Give the backbone structure.
Amino acid sequence: MAIEIIRVAWRSLRSNKLRSFLTMLGIIIGVMAVILSSAIGLGTKNGVTKSVESLGSNVLTVMRGSAQSRGISQGVGSATTMTADDVQQILDQDPDVAYASPVVTTNAQVVYGSNNTNTSIVGTNDSYAAIRNVTMQQGRYLMAQDVMTASHVAVLGSSVAQTLFGGRNPVGETILIQSIPFEVIGVAAPQGASGLASADDMINIPYTTEMSLLTGNNRISQIVASAKSPDVMYRAQLEIESTLRVAHQLKAGMADDFNILNQTTVLNTLGNITQMLTILLDGISAISLLVGGIGIMNIMLVSVTERTREIGIRKAIGAKKGVILFQFLLESLTLSVAGALLGVAIGGIGALVAGRLMNSGNLFSPVAAGLGVVFSVVIGIVFGVYPARKAANLKPIDALRFE
Amino acid sequence: MSLIEIRDLVREYVIGGQVIRALNGVNLTIERGEFVAIMGPSGSGKSTMMNMIGCLDVPTSGRYVLDGYDVSALSEDQLAELRNQKIGFVFQNFNLLLRMTALENVELPMLYAGVPPRERRDRAMEALERVGLKDRMHNRPNELSGGQQQRVSIARALVNHPVLLLADEPTGALDSRTTEDILGLFEELHEQGNTIVLVTHEPDVGQRAKRIVRFRDGRVEADEWMGADLGTAEDGAAAEETAAGTAEADAPRTGREVARRGD
Ligand SMILES: Nc1ncnc2c1ncn2[C@@H]1O[C@H](COP(=O)(O)OP(=O)(O)O)[C@@H](O)[C@H]1O
Ligand SMILES: [Mg+2]
């Protein structure tokens, strides 16, 4: 008999195709949202982790802080106190720091032949490659010798190399940075897409050269340093802080005129943000599923009223309560399960597309899909019970009299 | 034991605080094999009586025993089973399921009886053949004429071999020629031994039955036997007496008449 009841339920749904589909839509969107939210959450997390890690793990970045001028803050980056000498002191005094490099950044027009581009010129030293995980695609990186002699040499980021040279080998060629000729000594391997400013769209030159030819002063915009291991990140951060306070002659009670950015902290913060994003999306999916369930209940109630006479006939010729209950419950269950499966299909495709767009492999989560389906089944039952009971409890005589 | 025994049956409806007695102390006994017409003016309680006999509704008070089952003692599901096993319904407006073919409609009572699919199909086809509709079994109700639809519903009523065939105004929605067809079918079924109770307000339909029970104001007003094979004079007297006399006198007399009719 169960098979017949399933057929009856199926037939009644099919005879109202459009309505059945619209009823399922809430569940379809809900399940789709569950899958997509987990895909987007996972994709964002992957992307953030990857881009942060591509900039080097264990990295501490010291930025210029705000200068205190008679107790009035001048804003972030307004202090001009960091010099290459600070870097040397950190290296000399701080036992948990492995490498430290000064960074001087400016934007400049770069020309090769008839090609030109505007990119950021990052002046630094030879340690930078170790801190930022720069590997070479062609040629070599900066060496201590280049920095000492302030030579006119440049290491191109991969996308800059592509822009200026196309497929050709740039090593040994001469480019013009603000009309000053530089010899290209190497091209860095791509560091991968990152959500932040691309590490591939820049040129490294010795910071000494950049100071004398491009910025015209001896101030540096950043110090990047790496701790000896992830475990000593925080200790390294404290050491750097106290070294710089002494170097900058800050008295007790005065605020730091620099900020230290800890990679782990950044990673955790971003992790928290993506997690909040995922929770938000999950909440929206849950609400959507709930609304879908209410939609099912609504339509099933309409259906019970419309089919009162049918119920009366069935009861008159011998259908027991349980049979009617089962029939209507099965209809709402079919609606929710079919909706859930369609939602999984559409959500799966969406996750695939998201994976492509976010450059992030497989983002389809079977767990999310399974959860979505299970939740839909529960909703189908919960919201189907009331209409089904209403149908089952109809008195045959009242149901037959219904017009 | 009679097939139907009804004693002091009362059915009240309460509408807006007002009590309406649709049945006001009915006594009625019907034996196996009878062909009874229930007649009476509109509002006299015929349909209410049919619903009682068909176990679609339960009395406010009084006793109804169908084939040995005291109906007032049964649960809703037990009533459903009783309807399924003992009673075949024929309605004025056919009450077929519109989304199903004739064959599937006829299969339905057997579905609820738990008959296996193959047997269900065979028996449904047999029943449709019996009412002369074998060639239309894959048609849906809206592809059939009124008379054909009523034949389908008669096939559906017969398919579980009920002890009682109940028809409420079965020809009410049919033209006179089709009415003749359907009444012929009822007579045929009666001759084959089926018990038939038929509600009608049309005198020429009622004349086809072997016994007419007349209702007025929720009571049995008269109980008459028809046909030349019966002692008409005595029947007439009995009917008059029933009409005039108390309800209690109704039952034993009916029983005696039926017993007499048997020999
Ligand atoms: N469901 C109901 N609710 C209220 N009153 C009803 C209901 N069914 C029947 N009645 C009343 O009971 C009386 C008998 O009705 P019914 O049995 O349908 O008569 P008939 O079939 O002989 O025309 C009428 O007065 C009718 O209005
Ligand atoms: Mg009526």
About this structure: Residues B 46-47 surround magnesium ion (ligand 2) (CB under 6 Å).
